[in-house]
Amino acid sequence: MGSVRQKLRCGVATFVMVCMSGSALARTLTVACFHEDLLPGIRAVLPEFERQTGMSVRAQAVPHGSYELWIRTQMLSGDPPDIVLVDDLPLINRYGQSGLLQSIDALFAAPSPYDRSATPRPWRDVFKTELIQQARDPSGRLWSVPFTQYGVGFFYNRAVYEKLHLTPPATWEQLISNFEAVRASGATAIACAVRANDAQTVWMADMILELLLRPVVPEVNLRHAAGWHYEVADPASTRDEAITLDERLVAFAHGVIDPARSPAFRETARLMREMAREFRPDFLSLDGEEVTRIFGRGESVHFLNGTWYLRELSMMQRSIAQTAPERVFPWGVFPFPELTAESTKLPRLGGITQNSALRVCLALPRHKNDAPREDAAVALAQFLTAPTVTSELFKNTNVYDLPAMAEVPPKAGVESLAPPRRNAFLQVAQFRGYDARGEAEFWTLWQRFLGRQIELDDFLRGLSASHRAALARLAAEQAPSLDQNFLKAQLPGGFAP
Question: Which are the contacts of 89, defined by CB distance < 8 A and separation ≥ 6?
């Protein structure tokens, strides 16, 4: 596989010219997209790729509601699409770890032939460094190409805020105070469904945990480059760094990222339990699909969601206006509030990262007996992520996501909720688990904890056991790729499952 990649890197121009000449390499590629708002832009730029390469590309829309079953079916068919645009990173990584996706690590190290920068640079330099880090799996490997990032903020009912004389909160304490005031008025402060199709609670927990774990990044990233230094305010300080599975095993065994022993995990859970007091009382029985409509109908005052919800909410309100115009309300958005010294006694390096989470990624399925087809898919992915191409692509969409490419401006009219702050990022721990089984266990624990069926210590012990078991499973699966000398030096007694 490595020799094929080297040939692609060194001879992509020849590859393109051969395709244009009508050789056997010319083919039709398929791009499957679960995000209809991106398709107009993709279709707008594909003719140029077809003109340059002589290949044809079919852009296929797939309903988002069926994406897991559809992807599984395509993978099992043995003839999956050449590129899949999807926003489920854990699912992507599981397929990658199973050998069903092309690895991106080596590809990112070489230049993209479609990058028009004045000085040749690795393909990875097209993207925001922190988004590449967010795309890594628990072993530090890349199985997808970042494409869009979402901004998370609290949508709120401005009419209720005006009636209660509230202002958008800047801190955690002000947010909780606003929630309490709304509840005291008889309205619902926020509706959440604590399950996989409503990510509000894990978005909050992830943002808080990432902030509180920054002080331990150097303790986890032990196998760093010579002279490496972690600088929170400089995203480039984590460039080319990655937390590998063996480093994660050591950090967990030493208690640094063990939920039962980590102050950051304890504090994150405590704050979320405080927040859960303000959830609509039936939150354990709600479904994520219902929650989006609850806010749109004016039945809750706050809703934590991403930039994509702007389009959905606008459409929902237009529909409601046709039959019940009195139910349409003015709404606004404010950023996720900052933690202060009053919120937590733990150190805070920098602030809450706003508008930085990875959303849509490009996954490239393997076609093991057709290396030219795999290479053609890589070329198409490089084309779609070239800054000049992506800029044109975004102009032709209705998407409100932000581009994952550093030099690509957002679509006109899309503004950040807060001044851009690009913190250095390394994924030192994953709140909801490290594999599919661990994530399922997390949701059960999370529901019981936020529903006050178990206490904080019970939740942390349960999450610790789940994380430990998941890391042990990954270590067994990936034993040949682990640095056994490093593990023996750091953990003489081994990692206890």
Answer: 134, 135, 144, 358, 361
